[in-house]
Amino acid sequence: MALVGPSGAGKTSLLRAIAGLVRPAAGRIVLDGETWFDASARVWRPPEERRVGLVFQEYALFPHMSVRANVAFGGEGRVDELLERFRISALARARPDELSGGERQRVALARALARDPAVLLLDEPLAALDAHTRSAVRAELHELLRELGLPTLVVTHDYEDAAALADEVGVLVDGGLRQLAPPGELVARPADAFVASFTGANLLRGTARRDDGLTLVRLESGDEIYSADELEGPVGVVVYPWEIVVGPAPDGGSALNAIRAEVRSVTRVGSRVRVQLGPLTAELTQASVERLDLVPGRVAVASFKATATRLVSL
Amino acid sequence: MLPVLAIFVHVPPGRLLAQLSNPVVHDALVVTVRTSVVAQALILLLGTPLAYFLATRRFRGRALLITLVELPIVLPPAVAGIGLLVAFGRFGLLGRHFGVWSLVSFNWLAVTFAVLLVAGPFYVRSAISAFEAVDRDLVAAARTLGARPLRTFFRVSLPLARSGLAAGEAVALARGIGEFGATIMFAGSLQGRTQTLSLAVYAEFDRNFNVALAISAVLVLLSVAILLTLKVSALWQPSRQSSPSLFARFGSS
């Protein structure tokens, strides 16, 4: 499970509370029927009596110990097996400051697992890595978490990381949980405008009324679009960048909605290109951008289906 | 540099060396070593937990307590000596009772007390900064990995604070050996009982100047040895934690 939210949402505090590093004012922390903390019953277990594997954001490796000694600090039993498994046997005698970011993370994970934890807590596991090792480490981490089969709580400020690593994603804002659902579900049915924009959607404002079995939304820009969702009054319109078709004219197919606007910017992101078209961001391939000759200043039409147009109340 | 060099060139080295066989020198050396070893052991033993406590806990009155600990650093040593007298002296607050005075009256324990009071704060001040500089996440990580507070202290906090502790101890040791004012007020300057090397320099100054000079030379070499030990041990630090200069720490107290 992953918790995602902007900085200051309380993600790290939550992990620290579970690990026993901070004592919350209220609430309960229970794992497998074992109470670790209960404010009203005055139950408190110190961190060393909670079976947690906490991986810190900056990894918190002991700088005065070798890689092997770091891992052994968590527990002597499976050190060799863990060094082998995380491909750090060759680095066993190295000091943490001689390692790369990815290697440090593997040492931190091995050390946390040496403790034989009942739950694994990862604090921004990818934030300390540079963009270029990040996607490789993300795939590796996902694979590892699946193999381990341990209950795992990942906190991150990056929705894509959360969606890639976890089966369930919770959106945390100002210390409160806004929505908890599988990543697909968050995208399909965002609980509110914040969740929608956090998952990467376009958010437009407008007023909705029912119209012939569909909902007609009059946008602030004056454009009118249809949605299959049933809602009335002031609404947020949620459209994902990958559901927008861009062309010189409205799409001739089943897309009911079309917005004509000027191209504002064209930005390459990995293998995709993000095109800012009026109020909307669309994702296209480089080939399509070239074929349509999309350059800033050119007018184009964004088309999307009414079924891909989600509504949230504002 | 000139005053230090002058000690060695004022009289020929051979004559300087000959003065060292004077029993005053031998007695003063014994008193100094004995009191320094005991006082420094007490400083490390009591000062380290105190510094760790002050560095890691936040409580009401913490700033006041730190200020009290630091006070002897800025206090004139003679005042510290008077303070010791009215506290533990024959007619002092505590000295009157429990036989405290008979225990420390004009013997090496009184010297140890004076050194403890005057030199100890230098170590504690430095140790507080050293423990404060240890990354809190490392301490937290040790706890979540199953280490109790005591194991966390010995395996993580202490090794990481080591260079700062060593620097503080070196200053305290040097300060303790050089201690004069508080010792002469509280313990007197009795040869073979309370007369340390520093006190002997002053006592022999009137009687036999060359002996005073010879003892001074010994003290210079001792100070150089302390300083060199510190510099060399700093070079051997395996971790890359920068060890601040010896005196820089005292600026921001």
Description:
The complex is a heterodimer of chains A (314) and B (253). Chain A is an alpha+beta fold. Chain A has helices at residues 11-19, 67-74, 79-85, 101-114, 131-148, 159-165, 183-188, 193-198, 286-292, and strands at 2-4, 28-31, 34-38, 43-44, 52-55, 119-123, 152-156, 169-173, 176-181, 202-211, 214-219, 224-227, 233-239, 245-247, 257-269, 272-277, 280-285, 299-304, 310-313. In chain B, helix 11 (197-207) runs antiparallel to helix 12 (209-235). Chain B has helices at 2-9, 13-19, 23-56, 62-74, 77-88, 100-104, 108-132, 136-144, 149-177, 181-186, 197-207, 209-235. Chain B is mainly alpha-helical and 253 residues long. Chain A binds chain B through residues 16, 19-21, 46-48, 50, 52-54, 56, 58, 60, 62-64, 73-75, 95, 97, 111-112, 114-115, and chain B through 135, 137-138, 140-148, 155-156, 159-160, 238-241.
Tell me briefly what this model is:
The complex is a heterodimer of chains A (314) and B (253). Chain A is α+β, with helices and mostly antiparallel strands.
> What is the overall silhouette of chain B?
globular
Helix content of chain B: over 70%
Helix content of chain A: 25-40%
Largest sheet of chain A: 6 strands, mixed
Structural class of chain A: alpha+beta
* Overall number of strands of chain B: 0
Rounded to an integer in angstroms, the radius of gyration calculated over CA atoms of chain B is 20 Å
What shape does the CA trace of chain A take? globular
Strand proportion of chain A, as a percent range, falls in 25-35%
Compute the number of strand runs of chain A.
19
How much of the sequence of chain B is in beta strands? Answer: under 5%
Given as residue ranges, the uncertain stretches of chain A (5+ residues, pLDDT < 50) are none
Residue windows where pLDDT falls under 50 for at least 5 positions of chain B? 238-253
The number of helices of chain A is 9
The average pLDDT score of chain B comes to 86
Order of helices and strands of chain A: EHEEEEHHHEHEHEEHHEEEEEEEEHEE
The quaternary structure here is heterodimer
Give the overall pLDDT of chain A as a whole number.
89
